[in-house]
Write a structure and sequence with these properties.
alpha+beta; 3-stranded antiparallel sheet; 4 helices
Length: 234
């Protein structure tokens, strides 16, 4: 140890382990314990040296507030207990708060519909990631859920739109459909159908009536064109 280390330990002992006659009656408690360490002990015993809350602005504020003093929203303070005790108390309260919603939500969730989007090989190792960029949108005006996604295998120029009514007992027309971009941006009917083919990089709902998509040219060449398009959902 260096002289600096020894000085540090000596100062620590001098500050925290002065004799404390008022503690002589407690078995084995003849000195003030280190004030930080006592909060970290995993035991339910009272602190040997509880903090002095006199002049604390927060406690004074609570004491003078008629509404907050007995508020159930404020976690109770245990000035005589360690942090481990308070942690266990808080965990118990949180578990109690979350248990009922978990039971209710768990019992209310059920499968509304099932549809096959694509088939893959039996081997999980060789299964590619075919489902891409799912984006969810809730139209609160018409109470309809939307999901935008693409399937990469053989329809890179298509974006799929799945929609379901929030009331699972009701159905909507065209529950799932695909929009194909292909060569719709060709400026002339004379252009080759293969010369300007576009695929979807990303898609999000802009609002309840508009979908925003980012497209790129599918042709393998430098300087691929990128297009930001807004499409009316209708």
């Amino acid at each position: 140890m260096t002289q600096k280390d020894i000085t540090f330990v000596a100062d620590f002992l001098t500050e925290h382990f002065n004799e404390a006659p008022e503690l002589y009656n407690r078995k084995g408690k003849y000195f003030n314990v280190e004030r930080v360490g006592q909060y970290l002990k995993d035991e339910d015993d009272d602190l040997v040296s509880p903090p002095n809350t006199e002049g604390n602005q927060w406690f004074n504020f609570l004491k003078n507030s008629t509404h907050l003093k007995e508020s159930p929203l404020l976690f109770p303070y245990y000035p005589e207990k360690s942090l481990h005790f308070v942690k266990r108390q808080m965990e118990g309260v949180i578990d109690q708060c979350l248990q009922k919603p978990a039971d209710v939500i768990g019992k209310s969730v059920h499968q509304a519909v099932s549809m096959s989007l694509y088939k893959t090989s039996q081997s999980e190792d060789s299964t590619p990631q075919l489902f891409k960029l799912p984006f969810l949108w809730n139209d609160k005006t018409s109470n309809i859920h939307y999901i935008l996604f693409t399937i990469l295998e053989n329809s890179i120029s298509k974006i799929h739109i799945l929609r379901r009514h929030t009331d699972t007992s009701r159905s909507v027309s065209n529950g799932i459909l695909a929009v194909e971009f292909g060569n719709f941006l060709n400026s002339s009917v004379n252009e080759s159908s293969d010369s300007r083919c576009y695929s979807c990089l990303d898609a999000h709902f802009y609002d309840d009536e508009t979908v925003t998509v980012v497209l790129k040219e599918s042709v393998e060449q430098e300087g691929k064109e990128r297009v930001l398009a807004q499409l009316p959902l209708s």
